[in-house]
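agent> call fold_tool(seq_1)
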Amino acid sequence: MLLAFGGCGSDDKPAPMDMRATVVALPGAMRQIDFDDIVYSARLDRVLVPAGRSGLYLVEPRTGDAQRVGPAGTADSADEGRGLLFALDRGERALRVLEPAGGRVIASLNTANAPDYVRYIRSTGEVWVTEPTASPPGIEVFTVPAGAPRPARAAFIPLERGAEGLEWSSATGAAYTHTGDDVVALDPVSRSVAATWPTACGGTHGFPRVDARDRLLLASCADGEVVLLDLDSGRRIDRYAAGDGEALPGYAGRSGHFYARTDPGTRLVTLKASRGGLRVVRHVEVPAVGHCLTADGVGHYWTCDAENGRLLRFDDR
């Protein structure tokens, strides 16, 4: 693990770097990584980093110590549930279950269609996998038996206009995804759409982010905007232009802040949201190519530097 501070890029590929960034390297990773999905697991107290062909990493959020888990292979999306890791390999159409300690593969199976993102739904003990190119597109549902954690196909939730990103909220009990120009709330018990809310985006992108405390949701658009919605009614409250690329939102329950950047885009903003709208708290400069954004539970938010195969951590305390 290499942990560096300040404004340096790689020797032959310098990148814009905010002096407030902590740079976290992934030992043994490729020079360039096509990042997409990163997520924080409170149970493991680790940031899960699917690093494409470089595999899956677990990062200690305070020290930045990064460890690769599992055998060599591709990891494009990942989540944690019941102390297990669920990882997707899009190219192989494979869903793998791993032990965090040692990375032993407990089970592996193929999805019915090309997968995109995986999330564990704690309230029902299920693994949901978005499959946006299926006909119709939607979400494949897998049960995970407690005694023998091999996922078993249980259902498919059709979403005619697609499934872009996936977020589950322990506070609301619902799952959320973008579909077409809308956000939908999904009931995990009935495995059905509970609500559909227009965003006025010209196409959506990224993960819907939920602030259950203030009953707000931040949707994101393919044209660089993020849209603040009332979590109860779906009413559009405000919107903010984060940049010219595809919008990527984040949220931290600890601070109550939303975050937004675009890919490509060199500005990452911290947003304070209320029923009165969105207010920019601060912004930092980031490398232009970085297709991920999340927050941990100990006062940081994270994004990616794809051209140099590393992570950037910022304080928000």
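agent> call fold_tool(seq_2)
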Amino acid sequence: MKKKGFLEIPFGWLFALIVGAFILFLAIYLSIKLINTENTAQNAELAKGIGILTDPLETGFEEGSVSNLNLATNTRIYNRCEDYGTFGRQIISTSQQSLGKWTEIGVDISFYNKYLFSENYVEGKNFYVFSKPFEFPFKIADLIYIIPSEKQYCFLGAPDDVSKEISDLGLNILNVKNINNCPKTSVKVCFDSSGCDILVKTIEKSVTKQSQKVFYTNNALMYAAIFSDKGIYECQLKRLMERTSILSSIYDQKAILVSQKNCRTNIDLTGLNNLASNFNSSLNIKAIGSLVEDINKQYGAEECKLW
């Protein structure tokens, strides 16, 4: 006798169900792969675009430049720096928020002539970007700083030149005399006082952030130390010193050429070349900065200009 109660499914139907399930699985899998590939490509294009968009911030002979970076969706911009090679490299990658999740980080896009200062990654749709030329003593490069517009910085007791610069450039930074005037959610930066998230000592020329101290020589590097993580700051500074070393060698050669045309100069950049080429960390920047000050004083009296 045949047992009842069991569902009998013809083999043809069973085979069709298995094949259909496999096709459905394959379609979903390929769709996900396609979406991920597309996201990776979009992130790569975005990172490249961010690098290109910062080109107009190169200041030439200006004291600074300001711009806004507005993106279509919530984005994380990853900032990486590598200091090996002749000039090292600036690396930018991005990740975007899609359907409540972050896409995989896109491929690295490298730039050899950019110096971006920020935290390891910054997040948002709108970013505040400004730049300053770094002269040491001649122009080395433009330093670019990027801050999410949602992140408010509040400077407490900034020196007059810093206060004037904030005002002249229209920087989105509060400048106050009393810490009680800083918004509670702001990142507070104290100049020669305590009680803030970040401490700047203008005599020592140091910036302490998250218990980590770095050193600077001028306002361009001071902003860099305030707005970036220590690892990025130290790496970018080493890249800048490598560039300083090479440029000082070039200007030394130029001095020889102009001397042959009856335009003698007493500027000797050998010491700067040696110090910059042996640079290890921001601990060395004070000694190099002192030498740069001496060169600037001497250069001011020179009739033959090299830069």
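agent> summarizing second result for user.
The helical segments are 11-53, 160-169, 219-227, 230-259, 270-277, 285-300. Residues 30-151 form one domain.
agent> awaiting next instruction.
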